[in-house]
Description:
Number of helices: 2
Strand content: over 45%
Distance between the termini: 88 Å
Shape: elongated
Number of strands: 10
Mean pLDDT: 87
CATH superfamily of the largest domain: Immunoglobulins
Order of helices and strands: HEEEEHEEEEEE
Oligomer: single chain
Structural class: alpha+beta
Number of domains: 2
Amino acid sequence: MNGKKVALIGCGVAFLVFVLSVVAVVVLFMHMSKEVEGAGLSVESPLDVAVGETFVLTVVVENQRAGEALEVGDIDISEEYLGGFSVLSVEPKPKEEQHVPIDNSQSYTFGIEVPSGETREFKFKLRAEREGVFRGDVDLCEGMRFKTVVAQTAVKGKGGGAGE
């Protein structure tokens, strides 16, 4: 074989490897971007509170799968939402918590299975620290997949919350 044929075959193989790599990345991204299937997700919290007031943000996870457990790996709460609050406690207690800079969230690792047809609540006791309207994503993560809902709470000046 002459040098031109070898170079041509080498370029063809390199191009084929490149195309296959791109396809693999696209397939992986499509798989990862799928929503957690068979999971109901909602958040419960007061619409407004006063500065200094404590309240509970409840993340409700419902396993809607038939005969298959749902693994609650992590619950991630956007820093945009948490920016107005201090997290005082979390129930059940997470195995780990960390800031995730890639999506600017606080991640709470649980590793808890929710049996088929059952519901589990994750309670975040928060204290309102400053005035404003705080809104952000709350993600339920199972492996590489996630499902998102939005939490929003308005914080008024002292004495200006609900029930005042």
